[in-house]
Write a structure and sequence with these properties.
- The protein has a single domain, classed as FAD/NAD(P)-binding domain (3-Layer(bba) Sandwich).
- 33% of the residues lie in helices and 24% in strands.
- It contains ten helices and 20 strands.
- The strands form four sheets. Strands 4, 5, 6, 7, 14, 15, 16, 17 and 18 form a nine-stranded mixed beta sheet that branches. A six-stranded mixed beta sheet has the order 9-2-1-13-20-19.
- The longest helix has 29 residues.
- It is globular.
- 49% of the residues are buried.
- The chain binds flavin-adenine dinucleotide (FAD).
- Flavin-adenine dinucleotide binds next to helix 1, strand 14, strand 18 and helix 10.
């Protein structure tokens, strides 16, 4: 049994805590926000997505992003500012936005996602929370969008993933619970969805049952790789410390001189409490980059990627963009249904190559970094927990994670 400290009780920190307490380790998780309101893990779209085997840094993303920069309602924005860290992140992002990087990453992302999906299924059965295994619809209104997604479906087949290109009639057959206005789309049957609130609660409850502890305070600094100092000056030591603080991990890695290029990718969600009709499949709306997820009686609509450092202000124009896109694809809904809703804001921890940071840090052998999951943190959380547990126990990793090395940009 080892004494482990985890900084961050979002979906990544909790999934690591779950995996480690299951193996009998003594785990303490330090989380500054008891309600997880500001954590990226609470209000996300809840999708478990083997279909996301293409990293954020991919061909065409930069040219599309530049076009979108001029539209205040668009799903992408990069807040320009004089910041060397941002300049470096953009440079690295541009260097990785090519087909070679996609080809190098897609097998690993597929393997991580499929292994994680399997763990999600096992967890939902053991801990009794609903995981809806009906797949995801990628909906397209333009022919260009549909052609692009048909190519993604072909790439999915090459990787051995399931994907069905659908016309509008087939989409409606798969989703009888809502009217869909789309030219066509792709159904990814292996994708799933859940309510992140249920998932986080199940993890917290199981960690406590397994003897783990969740402490609500803020970590101010690291004692090298031997533990942490909290904002009250208390020192908490451990054999291994795991940094899983999402975008705020940067505050701690800076002290080590570790260059961990990461930017906050701001996104919003709005949750309708009880729409008159609720789709039963989750979907992504291609042209608006909006995610739509039924969560029990509720319906969550989420979107935007604003590369913004740590700024959490809400852009009303971009929120309107999300709502208008949703209503354009689901015409039974109208924008007035959203007018009273409080938006949720989350900062995705985005690495410039779209891959997580996962591994030990040289010269600080008792420190492990697990962050940078960008748009896939919920999806990849269980496999991240398993891989970190293997590192802690010095076991051979079940997947080759050398390309996730946290020092790869140093
Ligand atoms: C709109 C939107 C929709 C999304 N939809 C999906 C989706 O459908 N599927 C998917 O897989 N992903 C999705 N994501 C991405 C996903 O939410 C993130 O990748 C994931 O939540 C990151 O988890 P994390 O634990 O690394 O970070 P966080 O959730 O941010 O957790 C980090 C925690 O660490 C704590 N912390 C940090 N520093 C300290 C410190 N010094 N002391 C104490 N505590 C500290 C913070 O309080 C925080 O709670 C979405 C994101 C957004 C914004």
């Amino acid at each position: 049994m080892k004494e482990i400290l985890i900084v961050g009780g979002g979906v990544i920190g909790l999934s690591i805590g779950y995996a480690l307490t299951k193996r009998g380790h003594a785990v303490r998780i330090i989380e500054q926000d008891p309600e997880l309101k500001d954590s990226c893990s609470s209000g996300n779209a809840g999708m478990v997505v083997p279909s996301h085997f293409i990293p954020l840094a991919a061909p065409g993303v930069i040219s599309q992003g530049l076009k979108w920069m001029l539209n205040p309602k668009s799903p992408f924005f990069l807040r320009p500012r004089l910041d060397p860290a941002l300049a470096r992140w953009i440079w690295l992002f541009m260097r990785h936005s090519n087909q070679q990087h996609v080809s190098n990453s897609e097998t690993l992302l597929r393997d991580l996602s499929l292994a994680s999906r399997q763990l999600h299924v096992e967890l939902s059965e053991q801990e009794d929370f609903p995981l809806v295994q009906k797949g995801l619809l990628m909906l397209c209104q333009s022919q260009e969008g549909l052609d692009e997604e048909a190519e993604v479906a072909e790439a999915a087949h090459r990787l051995g993933l399931e994907a069905e290109v659908c016309d509008s009639a087939r989409l409606q057959e798969l989703e009888p619970n809502a009217d869909i206005k789309a030219q066509g789309g792709v159904w990814f049957p292996q994708d799933c969805h859940l309510d992140p609130h249920d998932f986080l609660e199940a993890l917290r409850s199981r960690i406590k049952k397994n003897g783990g502890e969740i402490i609500h305070t803020q970590v101010k600094s690291l004692i090298d790789d031997k533990g942490v100092v909290t904002n009250t000056g208390e020192k908490i030591t451990a054999e291994t410390t795991i940094l899983a603080g999402g975008i705020d991990t940067l505050n701690l890695t800076k002290q080590l001189g570790l260059k961990l290029p990461m930017q906050g990718g701001k996104g919003y969600s709005l949750t309708l409490p009880s729409p008159p009709r609720n789709p039963h499949l989750c979907s992504l709306l291609k042209e608006g980059r909006v995610a739509v997820t039924p969560m029990g009686e509720q319906l969550r609509v989420a979107g935007t990627m604003e590369i913004c450092g740590s700024n959490t202000s809400v852009s009303k124009a971009r929120l309107s963009g999300i709502i208008e896109s949703f209503c354009a694809f689901y015409p039974e809904f109208n924008p007035s249904q959203f007018s009273e809703l409080e938006p949720w804001v989350g900062l995705r921890p985005c690495s410039p190559d779209g891959l997580p940071y996962l591994g030990r840090i040289p010269f600080h052998k008792n420190l492990i970094v697990a962050t940078g999951h960008s748009m896939m943190g919920l999806s990849l959380a269980p496999i991240t927990g398993k891989l970190v547990a293997q590192l802690v126990d010095s076991e051979t990793s079940s997947l080759d994670i050398s390309s996730l090395n946290p020092t790869r940009f140093n």
